Amino acid sequence: MKSSIINHQSSIPMANLDVFCETLLALARKDRNVLAVTSDSRGSGKLAPFAAALPGQIVEVGIAEQNLVGIAAGLASAGKIVYAVSPASFLTARALEQIKNDVCYSDRPVTLVGISAGVSYGALGSTHHSTHDLAALRAIENITIILPADNVETAAAVRAAAALEHPVYLRFGKRPLPHLHPPETQFQVGRALTVRQGADVAFIATGETVHPALAAACELEKGGLSSRVISMHTVKPLDVATLMQAANECRALITVEEHSLCGGLGEACAAVLLQAGMRLPFRIVGFPDEYMVTGSQAEIFEHYGISAHGLAQTAQTLLDTRGRR
Fold first, then answer.
1. Most buried of 92, 118, 136, 173 (most Cβ within 10 A)?
2. Same domain, yes or no: 82 and 224
3. Considering 65, 208, 257, 258, which one is annotated as catalytic?
4. 256-306 pLDDT, tens per residue?
5. Strand partners, 236
6. Span 112-141, average pLDDT
7. CA pair distance 310, 216, nearest whole angstrom
């Protein structure tokens, strides 16, 4: 797949969703075939400026996610470049059959955009949390899954999706995110980005969890430990080469995701490592198989150890365990 230069120039942290909409509008101004289709998510999806600027390039289907995906697939079959925008929890559950058959089986180049993903909806509770979407979509063939970690990854991923000829799932949260990469960084679908080098422990994180992983690396550095931090922005296809390099060069490996422990990034990495015969301390950090606590995203992250302190503790425990063997 071709590389594209990340080129989002703003130095002010924005929510990835805002950058998505800004980038989509720029693409649509240049190409009338670029369309946004939404299921009553014009406000929550930050698409109001897009609708005001290009009213002929947005389709509103109401609260009907199955219709959203079916219509998007039909438009894509007619040569349109379609971004189907809806809350991730509903898009990937209510419309899973349409994603499987209308988009993936039919090989329609629709970009499915899951907004307010993970636990971004916070206190609204489990009905609005999307902690299942990676597991559901990873099991469906013919779909690329991308979780940008910051604004610059987001802008590049949106542009890359427009150029791909197969289905894509983009996942965005709600909170402003500081930049992890300089503007000249090369972004490539399916190729992870290393945010920080280190040899004691490697954090393989995706989406918004890259930030607490980086904070944990800084905390561990105070104790003399070096940590590698990798943004595995593409969960499918997985960057096996970067994963294996980290496993060979680091003493322990931790995956971090805003998702259930079942079926997400961690299990994908575990399968690769085990089948390759790797033996090293390994831990999956995410949400356990239980009805989750409610609260803000930050509070939920803290509760489940997706924080600088929690991840640093997990790393220290893994390294201590290896030292006792």
1. 118
2. no
3. 65
4. 999 999 999 999 999 999 999 999 999 999 999 988 888 999 999 999 999
5. 145
6. 92
7. 8
Q: How far apart are CA 141 and CA 285, in angstroms?
A: 25
- Cα(222)–Cα(136) distance, integer angstroms: 39
CATH of the domain at 283: 3.40.50.920
165: tokens are 């000829």
Nearby residues of 128 by Cβ (< 8 Å), 6 or more positions away: 87, 89, 116, 121
Place of tokens 């561990």: 220
> Counting beta carbons within 10 angstroms of the beta carbon of residue 67, is it exposed (0 to 12), middle (13 to 18) or buried (19 or more)?
middle
**Full-model pTM:** 0.94
Q: CA end-to-end span of the chain, whole Å? A: 42
* 200 and 172 in a common domain: no
pLDDT digits (tens, 9 = 90+) for 132-153: 999 999 999 999 999 999 999 9
pLDDT of residue 182: 84
In a domain, 325, yes or no: no
How many CA atoms does the CB half-sphere of 73 hold within 13 Å?
A: 20
250, 310: one domain: yes
Q: Is 65 a catalytic residue?
A: yes
d(CA 213, CA 77): 40
Radius of gyration of the chain (CA): 19
Residues 168 and 146 in one domain: yes
Range of the domain at 78: 9-177
Q: How far apart are CA 300 and CA 241, in angstroms?
A: 32
Last residue of a domain, which of 177, 203, 234?
Answer: 177
Max Cα distance, the chain (Å): 65
Alpha helices in the chain (DSSP H): 16-30, 48-53, 65-77, 88-94, 96-98, 133-138, 151-163, 210-221, 240-249, 265-275, 297-303, 308-324
